[in-house]
Amino acid sequence: MRAHCVALLLFTALASAQTGRDAVKPLLVMIKSEWDDPGQDPSQNGVGIVLARQSDRLYIATANHVVRYGPRKAKSVLLRLHWLPGEPKKADVTEHFDTKLDLAVLILGRASELAVPELPFRVLADSTKLKPEESKVRAMGYPGGREWYVRSAPDVVAPGDAESVKFDAAWLAGGYSGGGLFTDGWELAGMIKNDQPPEGEALRIERLIERVKQWGYPVQLAAGGVVIPKPQPTGVVNPRPQRADSVWIEPGTFLMGCSPGDRECDSDERNPPVRTTIAKGFWLKKTEVTQAEFQRVMGSNPSHIKGPNRPVESVTWHEAADYCRKVGGRLPTAAEWEYAARAGTPGPTYGELDAIAWYRDNSKSGTHDVATKQPNGWGLYDMLGNVWEWVSDNYDSNSRELRGGSWYSFSLVTRASNRSRVVPGDRNLTDGFRCSRDD
């Protein structure tokens, strides 16, 4: 009788795992990245989490290291959808990624042809409910490129932090990166970043959703809701359509001024920094305004260092503000500019300076085409370096404020909190701008 009960319990557990696996399959896709870099394996397997279907596209989150090797994207990224047999589908790796969170976003087009299942799926509303040595978790991946495989961890092994959940990974062996970390009841708790023993790590689902929304992508994951709702009826307009040239900046709070531990701060930088709230979201141009864009709208190009895709420079504050008005926008405030430049990072720069900015040490005495350095975590290019950027604020009674440093700036100047001032009617070949606009 005891053997029969044990067998029955084992069967029930296996059936539950099978049912849970089938229920979450619509949430996940298999990823195979291919590389042509001699320093990288020719291919890598991973997993992606479907965030939303909108405007005939699937939006998918995955671990950044699955689709990037350093700053370089994979040569191709192929997705295999379990509900759609046949050849894998090629996805686009977006420009948005966060190396600290190990997060990237993929887009798969022509989603209306994919017959995406519409099954309910629960998201854990608060991943802090996962308690060390108490909460059991599950992972779902496809190690070795084989069929989906579910593994269960004994417990969560460490408290983690505000961004991550740590768990016992002795039972994993690769092939789970980018996939879901689930509760024992199959609620999505996070995205797996590290699937290597002995200790795994997953990005908390709340932090993932927050970051992806900051980049302006749709997210249809919700506690107790469905992963992919039915497509909107024809004629229904997305309340916040994507703009090719701009990034939507969500409202939020940050420390404005001298970054903690920054010893290069000037006396005009707020020190200590002040907690500042951006109450309303806004659009911000991904790049500085180029010479070609300025010429097209204003009918002239005042720049001294010519090039259609280089930032326009030698513009006065009045000309910059006028251009933004003509294209339906405005100059950002200093607070908006710094909030967007930091992109959630607390330090003086949002990355290693040579990788993100054209400044005195690497510019060879001139501007460069926009978007040729790495963007910040919110997809904005050249927020530091290339040209100083006019903002709407007065610096004092005689001057307007500029931010970000330029191709001529030393590294100690090329920082998110640094401020400069120029008389609004002056022209300098280090000064340019970008526009913002309200929703």
Task: Itemize the secondary structure elements and their pairings.
Blueprint: H1 2-24, E1 28-34, E2 43-54, E3 57-62, H2 64-67, E4 68-69, E5 72-73, E6 76-80, E7 89-98, E8 103-109, E9 137-141, E10 149-153, E11 164-168, E12 180-183, E13 188-194, E14 199-204, H3 205-214, E15 246-249, E16 252-256, E17 274-278, E18 282-285, H4 291-298, H5 317-326, H6 334-342, H7 353-356, E19 388-394, E20 400-403, E21 419-422, E22 431-432, E23 436-438
Give a concise summary:
This protein is α+β, with helices and mostly antiparallel strands.
Structural features, described:
There is one protein chain. The strands form 6 sheets. Strands 1-2-3-8-7-6 form a 6-stranded antiparallel barrel. The protein is α+β, with helices and mostly antiparallel strands and 439 residues long. The model is unreliable at 1-19 and 223-240 (pLDDT under 50). It has 3 domains: 23-113, Beta Barrel (Thrombin, subunit H); 127-208, Trypsin-like serine proteases (Thrombin, subunit H, Beta Barrel); 246-438, paralog of FGE (formylglycine-generating enzyme) (Alpha-Beta Complex). It has 7 helices and 23 strands. It is globular and about 65 Å long. The longest helix has 23 residues, at 2-24. It starts with a helix and ends with a strand. The relative contact order is 0.11.
Question: What descriptive keywords fit this protein?
Answer:
3 domains, disordered N terminus, single chain, paralog of FGE (formylglycine-generating enzyme), 439 residues, 15% helix, six-stranded antiparallel barrel, Thrombin, subunit H
